[in-house]
Structure prediction request, 419 residues.
Amino acid sequence: MGFKEDFTLKSNELLEKRVMRDAIHDYIHVDHLIIWRLINAQEVQRLRRIKQLGGTHQVFQSAEHSRFVHSLGVYQTIRRMLETECLDNYLSDYDKLCVMIAGLLHDIGHGPFSHSFEGVFHDNHEDMSVRLILEDSEVHDILADFYEELPQDVASIIQHTHPNKALIQMISSQLDADRMDYLLRDSYMSGTTYGQFDMSRILRTMRIKDDHIVYKESGVQAIENYILARYHMYWQVYYHPTARSYEHLFQSIFLRVKDLYQQDYHFQTNMKYILPFLENKETNRDFTNFDESVVLYYFREFTDEKDPILKDLSLRFLNRRLFKYVDFDDINEVEEIKKIASQHGYDPRYYIITDNQKQIPYLHYGDNFNEIEILDRHNQLSPLPLKSEIVSAILNSKNYKSDQKVFFPKELKDDISIL
Ligand code: NI
Prediction:
């Protein structure tokens, strides 16, 4: 196919361009053959069977959307960024192609019930997305057939190692296409309005300066609004204790499965989709076979297992008999609750779970993410907190909200409430 330096997007245009209707972006446009082929690859189609928000639909019942629609939305947001004059002139056609693909593929490494799965099997979704792009997958073959270097060039955007900083900023920074799409989408789908912000305004004020993306001073209010939208979504939706409770049940089930496996328990269920994970040797195929439809099938099967804990936890999960929760300050309170649980025959290892949530709204000179930079009328750059009273007030507050809870079976509620 020649040299990537000579690549033109025009040469890959579809004869018949595709559009997909979308609740957030109105239309998702597919203009290029390789994008269309990637959307139809099995690793991307699999994302239809992974929910975007794990257990959140247990409390915001309509938030059942998949990572597939979110991935299309991130791709479309990137496409809109590329249409802005500054990026259109700045990037080569090959870089534009790479970043559109990175947007589409950035989440292919998510396991079922994403973050709960990572908690149990210590897989990191970013590493897994990169692994699927670099080897042994349908998306890898599509990319490598196009240009030998394309898998690596796309992966390096997701890994933050690409030499062009602007491409990394578009996918993964404090103001990127991923966050913009998920805030608007999760907000809409959950029926809350906290995640709304003015994306068109932010895109209009985008500029390139010193080879990275910055924003004009007139965009500061839109950016403040976006930062607060994200902060409020975390507390109102993403960290909702009922969703956490559901995810803890998921983790307890897999913790029990792991323990039983170590103890040579004889499972009645055919464990073929789970075994590679228990043995820590899952291939890319094992990983992509493992989606939420498979997990839910297993939980149904586990309700017929002889082990009473596995059976009970699975029934609770399927029938939404979620754990209750209370705040705690001191680990001694948790020890008391564990004692009560043991007295009632509940093994605290699976039935008493603690967690602690924190959300820092903006990172000033953070390690992974760079500042959002503001370009003033003298063509000088300043970090956002110097241009925004709101962001600087948040940074100076030091009193970041955190939420520490202990979760327990609701049967113990009366015994625990008198503590
Ligand atoms: Ni994402």
